[in-house]
Amino acid sequence: MMPWFKRVEKGISTPTEEKKETPDGLWYKCPECKTVTSMTEHRKNLKTCVKCNYHDRIGSKEYFAILFDDNKFTEMDEDMSSGDPLNFTDSKPYPQRTVETQRKTGLKDAVRTAYGKSGGRDITIACMDFAYIGGSMGSVVGEKIARAIDHARKTRTPFMMISKSGGARMMEAGFSLMQMAKTSAKLALLSEEKLPYISLLTDPTTGGVTASYAMLGDFNIAEPGSLIGFAGPRVIKETIGKDLPKGFQSAEFVLEHGFLDFIVDRKELKQRLVDLLGMIMPAAEESNGTAKTQKAAKSS
Q: Which of 270, 264, 273, 272 is nearest to 55 (CA)?
């Protein structure tokens, strides 16, 4: 049998049967600039490309580790799971899809909610996971976000929403669409109490999520290069029959047209959040304190 590797001048010959396969997961190849780096280095760089800064998709586990001090937080409603209100079946029954996705991803649904400290300041965070049925918004997603907002109101902490979603979950149809109104109403209550809401849009943020809570932030921010829109660019192009502008629906395009406040590199996310809250929370707390004093004076 011919050797798999042979260099006659060096006297090196490796028989095919002794060939060793390189284990999967050791290297990362950037889909944008094709730069190859080790997975260890890629993770150290918070899964952004060391050359072109392309932001790879990450989930709630990574975002919580980035934002919460020492990765310490208390998760809320962690065992909440979807029912099957419509007895929905496509290629498989919805309950079967739910069980299989939970087993595969280790997640109960497409959002996790938690509270803890970021830069020493108390904060409530909800973060979507694209790995769970495309980050689709179903009844559990809406309910967990609503409860997280209620927690922020009760504890008087700022609320942060990290969106990453393909839109409403078709397996729950109208029940999914109802979450748009429910979460928006809860955010209106948060606003009435003068508590800040920071919305971080990541790749991709589309559909009913964009049309509701993702774009309702006091500050709407995004990661570089994120796809942000309602319908996808292919659908829009086919509908209007025209070519779309370069960079259409990218975070940079959306920022240029006034729908974002700023774009933030993932490696700077926590510090930018801490700085932002440091500027707005003292004013908000002072305003709330004044309102409470006036209310107490009236009641007396």
A: 264
CA-to-CA distance for 80 and 234, rounded, in angstroms?
35
Q: What is the DSSP letter of 228?
A: B
H-assigned helices in the chain: 39-44, 60-67, 94-105, 139-155, 173-192, 207-210, 233-240, 251-256, 269-299
| N- to C-terminal Cα separation, the chain | 97
Q: Cα separation of 56 and 62, whole Å?
A: 12
Cis check: omega of the bond before 204, within 30 degrees of 0: yes
What secondary structure letter does DSSP report for 74? E
Question: If you count them, how many residues does the chain have?
Answer: 300
Please tell me the distance from the alpha carbon of residue 120 to that of residue 11, in angstroms, as a whole number.
62
Inter-residue contact 252 to 293 (CB < 8 Å)? no
Closest CA to 268 of 44, 117, 42, 46: 46
Task: Report the greatest alpha carbon distance in the chain.
Answer: 98
pLDDT string in tens for the chain (300-residue length): 555 555 555 556 656 555 555 555 799 999 999 999 999 999 999 999 999 999 999 999 999 999 999 999 999 999 999 999 999 999 999 999 999 999 999 999 999 999 999 999 999 999 999 999 999 999 999 999 999 999 999 999 999 999 999 999 999 999 999 999 999 999 999 999 999 999 999 999 999 999 999 999 999 999 999 999 999 888 899 999 999 998 999 999 999 999 999 999 999 999 999 999 999 986 555 455 444 444 445 554
pTM: 0.86
DSSP H or E stretch at residue 222: strand 219-222
The alpha carbons of the chain give a radius of gyration, in whole angstroms, of 23
